[in-house]
Amino acid sequence: AYMQPHLLGNEFTHLEFPRRVQRKEVGKRMLYRDFNMTGWAYKTIEEDDLKFPLIYGEGKKARVMATIGVTRGLGDHDLKVHDSNIYIKPFLSSSPEVRVYDLLQYEHGPDDVLILATDGLWDVLLNEEVAEAVTNFLPNCDPDDPHRYTLAAQDLVMRARGVLKDRGWRISNDRLGSGDDISVYVIPL
């Protein structure tokens, strides 16, 4: 965005401010940072700073060009910002992380599984928490039960969603449960 601003269609800024800049703040000083900065500095707001930020929102709600979450960028080569001719693709990676695991190189038991899940699970549970949950769940199932892996997947979904309390959905240690979609596959190796 900094090196090729023309790709932003003159509608977005690569600068980051603590919040969206408003017209009444032109001429006033506000904290900002750029991609090469390790901290924040002050800047006098100019008309150009009123543009929409390249990354809008925080955490799971962050959106590239106010249109799409970064995780949605794989494969969607023709995606444009709503009502414009600005392509989003230059700002997202189209190269997924790929790992190869040779199934024939290792021996696997009935409790050795691969977990394939959407970010609704991974946003709230660590890899170690998921591994521990499945490791504790599967031995308590009948090894001949054809639904044991489905039950393990359902258990993970419920762990990520949490329970409804007076302050919303909560998981262990009173952390927020997932507000995103949660799909889980437990695949026996």
Automatic annotation (TrEMBL):
<feature type="domain" description="PPM-type phosphatase">
    <location>
        <begin position="1"/>
        <end position="189"/>
    </location>
</feature>
<dbReference type="Pfam" id="PF00481">
    <property type="entry name" value="PP2C"/>
</dbReference>
<dbReference type="GO" id="GO:0004741">
    <property type="term" value="F:[pyruvate dehydrogenase (acetyl-transferring)]-phosphatase activity"/>
</dbReference>
<dbReference type="InterPro" id="IPR015655">
    <property type="entry name" value="PP2C"/>
</dbReference>
<protein>
    <submittedName>
        <fullName>PPM1H phosphatase</fullName>
    </submittedName>
</protein>
<dbReference type="GO" id="GO:0005739">
    <property type="term" value="C:mitochondrion"/>
</dbReference>
<dbReference type="InterPro" id="IPR001932">
    <property type="entry name" value="PPM-type_phosphatase-like_dom"/>
</dbReference>
<dbReference type="InterPro" id="IPR036457">
    <property type="entry name" value="PPM-type-like_dom_sf"/>
</dbReference>
